[in-house]
């Protein structure tokens, strides 16, 4: 601008004398906005100025110079214009803000020079438009401010160093992270202590120094890597224990700052706090590891469970079968043992193969499927068959494998119950046998009871016998003595009688009277009879006692040869009391050989027959005792003329406890006991009976000498003569 | 003098036996013998008498309220070993019979009711045998005496003991005194 001055001055001086047109021309020739004034109005302006202000030249000419400036600058503009007219030398150029037609501000550098044109002081003012420069300056400033703001407000801790390693920027996040203020760090070269607690270069320092990858690697072994994003930048991650409560993980990136020419002028380093991420990562890793361990454990568990289950299934003692759509998909060893031959497999086979017939299979399906379809377990026992045809009694329990989809298939547990069934059957038959045994036992017990009863009767009888034997003993003896005495007395009387002739008549008469009084003749006649009858009576008492003793000797279980007729008599003697008021007893004994038997027990049989016969007779009747021999058998019969028995009764008379007698009269044991006793002798009992006519019980006993076990054949007579009740 | 001891809880039996033995003499060595009879219904009383009185024969019932015949005769055997022993009973079980034979060493078992004739015959026989045995023993003792195996004093003691059972047995007290138990052996 200064260089224009001489020229302008020369031009103006050249046109000193010419008209203002010269000035005009000069002004118009100038590309620089310019105008002339003489302290009052603008007297001349060029097109450049008009353009600058957005006004027509005429409009400008009407204005005072101060009016060209913006409102608050007009005073200064006025002052400056006046100063230029008056002060020598003129004031230096000044910055001025002009106002355009549209009110916009135009920054200009205003240079005024005083000229003497035609003797009048004229101010030439040139305007150097500063708007663009100003704009650039403002822009630059703005940019720097924005940059600072960006840096400052960047949440990522960031700092910048220049080529001299001095810190030029240190943003707020960085302050927070490091705990160091920008004021502390501004211009600091040794930043190492802040980060590492000792002096050492940072990544940005290396970047500024243009260090190569090797040097970087040396300082950050294993961590450093080139940035994928920006050229020449490097990034690394590290742990910084100084920061925060328990240290911080930082991911830091350093990038070179270059001049447009490419020369490095600084470096920017961002420090990204990745502690949380690291923690999260660590946590994640830990969690993942944990999960992995868990998964491993679970897997192992699952494997083990699976193995166990498999082993369990394989070794289970029941057959296990998985069935889908009617075909075997899996089975265990036990199943194979039950249904398959060696080496066979059931997998793929139809389950129908294991049923005995298709009908059975269909029947089974018909009852099993509805149950399984409702996801209920199904239990059943049936006959299945081994593939080779052998039949098995099997208990089956079925479960659907998936309760949500009952059609998916089923598990079947099969247990071979053949043995159980066999055992059960055996048990049942055993039970039957046991019942039979029990029945026999009961019989034996009854017999025993009876025997015991008889034994106690025997003891009683023996005791009674002793008691009776005592008086019998002395009565019997006394009777003998009495006989002696009587004999002696009779002899004495005979002596007296023979001496009667020698007596005085009075004495003889007195004796005669006494004799008559005593009926001596009858007495002498009757005395022997009396004594004999007494002796007879005593003998009978003795025999009864003897019979009682014999009869009661039930424990005397010796087999001995005996005479049945004597047994009958002896028994009759015992029970005569029962019989004699009811019936006349007719004896019709045949000749019998001695028979080896348990006489005491057979006596009981006789007694039962005789007592029953007596009981069958209501008022008075006849009991006939007969005996006889046919071949090698002897028989004894007791027949009565009593009430007889119906067929029904006849069928039951040998049942224990069956009785037709009133309660308390009979035990219902007599005939069953008799039957047992006779059976023991290999004999039989035959009954003839007609209701209203009477009954006859005939006992047949084989003659079996000692040492002979063969039972002789039953005589035809015994076989046909009557219906055998047994 | 021959003595027979009768023991039965039933006095009727005792009386009947007395009558029989009075009416029918026992015949021993061809001589009719009417022995003196001591009858007791109480075995204890009978044994008390037997402690001082020598008997040729004892007849006892088997079942008695105080003690049974076996016990009585066992006791008798201790008191008078040479006295013959007979059981007269209407009843006995096998065990009783075995005890009677093995423990009481009875000479005869006679059942009630008895036959008088059989009874008298049996008793005669027993006494006959007893007399023989006694004679044998006496002769044997005489021989022993002659051989010097037995002193006349021993023989005399034996004779005295036979006549008066217990007379040769002196009961010495702990203090050297002679015990005469009048309660146990009333004279």
Tell me about the largest β-sheet of chain A: 6 strands, antiparallel
Structural class of chain B: alpha/beta
- Beta fraction of the residues of chain B? 15-25%
Low-confidence stretches of chain B: none
> Mean of residue pLDDT of chain B?
87
Number of strands of chain A: 23
Query: What separation lies between the terminal Cα atoms of chain B?
Result: 19 Å
**Going across the major beta sheet of chain B, what is the strand order?**
4-1-5-6-7
Write down how many β-strands of chain B occur, each being a DSSP E stretch of 2 or more residues: 7
The largest inter-chain interface, given as chain pair and residues per side, is: A-B, 21 and 22 residues
Let me know the largest β-sheet of chain B.
5 strands, parallel
- Low-confidence spans of chain A: 12-17, 721-726
Chart the SSEs and their pairings.
The complex is a heterodimer of chains A (726) and B (187).
Chain A: H1 4-14, H2 20-29, E1 34-37, E2 42-45, H3 47-53, H4 57-61, H5 74-86, E3 94-99, E4 105-117, E5 120-129, H6 131-153, E6 158-162, E7 167-170, H7 172-178, H8 182-185, H9 192-196, H10 203-208, H11 213-219, E8 225-226, E9 234-240, E10 248-258, E11 264-273, H12 275-315, E12 319-324, E13 327-331, H13 333-339, H14 358-373, E14 378-385, E15 391-400, E16 410-416, H15 418-498, H16 505-518, H17 520-552, E17 560-562, H18 564-579, E18 583-588, E19 595-597, H19 599-616, E20 621-630, E21 633-640, H20 647-652, H21 670-680, E22 684-690, E23 694-702, H22 716-720
Parallel strand pairs in A: 18-20
Antiparallel strand pairs in A: 1-2, 1-5, 3-4, 4-5, 6-7, 6-11, 8-9, 9-10, 10-11, 12-13, 12-16, 14-15, 15-16, 17-19, 20-21, 21-23, 22-23
Chain B: E1 3-7, H1 11-23, E2 26-28, E3 31-33, E4 36-40, H2 43-50, E5 57-60, H3 69-79, E6 84-89, H4 94-102, E7 108-111, H5 116-147, H6 152-163
Helix pairs in contact in B: 2-3
What does this structure look like?
The complex is a heterodimer of chains A (726) and B (187). Chain A has 726 residues and is α+β, with helices and mostly antiparallel strands. Chain A is rod-shaped and about 255 Å long. Chain B contains six helices and seven strands, in the order E-H-E-E-E-H-E-H-E-H-E-H-H. Helices cover 45% and strands 16% of the residues of chain B. In chain B, helix 2 (43-50) packs parallel to helix 3 (69-79). Chain B has helices at 11-23, 43-50, 69-79, 94-102, 116-147, 152-163, and strands at residues 3-7, 26-28, 31-33, 36-40, 57-60, 84-89, 108-111. The mean pLDDT of chain B is 87. Chain B is α/β, with parallel strands linked by helices and 187 residues long. Classes of the chains: A alpha+beta (726), B alpha/beta (187). The interface between A and B is medium-sized, with 21 and 22 residues.
């Amino acid at each position: 601008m200064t260089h224009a001055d001489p020229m302008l001055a020369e031009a103006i001086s050249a046109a000193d004398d010419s008209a203002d047109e010269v000035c005009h021309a000069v002004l118009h020739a100038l590309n620089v906005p310019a105008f002339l004034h003489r302290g009052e109005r603008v007297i001349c302006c060029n097109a450049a100025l008009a353009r600058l202000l957005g006004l027509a030249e005429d409009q400008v000419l009407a204005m005072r110079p101060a009016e060209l400036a913006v409102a608050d600058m007009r005073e200064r503009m006025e002052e400056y214009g006046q100063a230029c007219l008056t002060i020598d030398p003129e004031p230096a150029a000044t910055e001025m803000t002009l106002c355009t037609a549209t009110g916009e501000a135009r920054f200009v550098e205003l240079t005024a020079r005083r000229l003497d044109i035609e003797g009048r002081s004229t101010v030439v003012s040139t305007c150097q438009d500063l708007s663009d420069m100003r704009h650039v300056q403002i822009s630059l400033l703005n940019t720097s401010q924005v940059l600072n703001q960006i840096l400052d407000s960047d949440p990522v801790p960031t700092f910048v160093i220049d080529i001299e390693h001095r810190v030029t920027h240190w943003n707020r996040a960085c302050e927070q992270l490091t705990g160091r203020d920008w004021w502390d760090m501004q211009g600091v070269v040794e930043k190492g202590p802040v980060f590492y607690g000792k002096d050492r270069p940072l990544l940005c320092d290396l970047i500024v120094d243009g260090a190569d990858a090797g040097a970087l690697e040396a300082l950050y072994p294993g961590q450093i890597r080139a940035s994928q994003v920006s050229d020449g930048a490097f990034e690394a991650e590290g742990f910084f224990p100084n920061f925060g409560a328990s240290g911080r993980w930082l991911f830091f990136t350093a990038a070179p700052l270059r001049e447009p020419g490419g020369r490095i002028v600084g470096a920017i380093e961002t420090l990204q706090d990745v502690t949380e991420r690291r923690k999260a990562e660590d946590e994640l890793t830990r969690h993942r590891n944990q999960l992995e361990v868990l998964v491993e454990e679970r897997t192992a568990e699952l494997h083990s469970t699976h193995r166990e289950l498999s082993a369990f299934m394989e070794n289970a003692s029941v057959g296990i079968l998985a069935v889908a759509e009617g075909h075997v998909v899996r089975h265990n060893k036990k199943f194979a043992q039950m249904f398959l031959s060696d080496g066979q497999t059931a997998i793929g086979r139809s389950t129908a193969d294991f049923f005995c017939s298709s009908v059975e299979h269909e029947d089974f399906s018909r009852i099993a499927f509805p149950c399984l379809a409702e996801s209920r377990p199904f239990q059943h026992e049936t006959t299945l068959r081994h593939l080779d045809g052998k039949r098995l009694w099997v208990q089956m329990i079925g479960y659907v494998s998936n309760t949500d989809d009952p059609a998916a298939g089923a598990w079947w547990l099969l247990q071979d119950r053949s043995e159980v069934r066999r055992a059960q059957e055996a048990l049942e038959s055993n039970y039957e046998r046991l019942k039979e045994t029990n029945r026999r036992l009961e019989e034996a017990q009854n017999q025993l009871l009876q025997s015991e009863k008889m034994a106690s009767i025997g003891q009683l009888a023996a005791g009674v016998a002793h008691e009776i034997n005592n008086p019998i003993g002395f009565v019997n003896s006394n009777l003998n003595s009495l006989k002696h005495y009587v004999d002696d007395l009779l002899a004495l009387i005979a002596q007296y009688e023979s001496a009667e002739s020698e007596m005085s008549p009075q004495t003889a008469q007195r004796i005669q009277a006494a004799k008559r009084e005593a009926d001596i003749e009858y007495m002498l006649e009757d005395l022997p009879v009396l004594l004999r009858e007494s002796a007879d009576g005593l003998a009978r008492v003795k025999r009864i006692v003897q019979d009682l003793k014999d009869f009661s000797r039930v424990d005397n279980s010796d087999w001995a040869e005996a005479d049945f007729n004597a047994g009958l008599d002896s028994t009759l003697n015992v029970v005569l009391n029962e019989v004699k008021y009811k019936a006349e007893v007719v004896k019709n004994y045949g000749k019998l050989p001695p028979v080896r038997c348990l006489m005491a027990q057979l006596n009981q049989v006789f007694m039962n027959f005789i007592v029953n016969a007596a009981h069958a007779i209501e008022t008075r009747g006849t009991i006939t005792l007969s005996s006889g021999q046919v071949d090698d058998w002897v028989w004894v019969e007791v027949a009565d003329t009593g009430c007889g028995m119906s067929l029904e009764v006849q069928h039951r008379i040998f049942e224990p406890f069956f009785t037709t007698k009133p309660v308390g009269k009979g035990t219902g044991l007599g005939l069953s006991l008799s039957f047992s006793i006779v059976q023991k002798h290999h004999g039989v009992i035959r009954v003839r009976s007609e209701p209203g006519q009477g009954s006859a019980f005939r006992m047949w006993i084989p003659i079996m000498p000692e040492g002979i076990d063969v039972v002789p054949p039953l005589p035809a007579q015994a076989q046909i003569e009557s219906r055998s009740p047994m | 003098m021959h003595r027979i001891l009768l023991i039965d809880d039933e006095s009727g039996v005792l009386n009947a036996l007395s009558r029989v033995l009075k009416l029918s003499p026992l015949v021993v060595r061809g001589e009719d013998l009417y022995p003196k009879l001591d009858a007791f219904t109480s075995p204890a009383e009978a044994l008390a008498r037997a402690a001082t009185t020598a008997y040729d024969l004892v007849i006892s019932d088997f079942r008695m309220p105080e003690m049974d015949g076996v016990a009585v005769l066992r006791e008798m055997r201790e008191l008078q070993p040479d006295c013959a022993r007979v059981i007269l009973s209407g009843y006995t079980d096998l065990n009783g019979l075995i005890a009677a034979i093995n423990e009481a060493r009875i000479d005869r078992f006679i059942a009630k009711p008895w036959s008088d004739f059989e009874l008298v015959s049996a008793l005669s026989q027993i006494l006959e045998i007893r007399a023989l045995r006694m004679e044998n023993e006496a002769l044997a003792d005489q021989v022993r005496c002659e051989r010097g195996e037995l002193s006349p004093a021993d023989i005399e003691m034996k004779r005295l003991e036979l006549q008066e059972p217990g007379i040769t047995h002196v009961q010495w007290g702990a203090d050297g005194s002679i015990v005469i138990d009048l309660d146990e052996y009333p004279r």
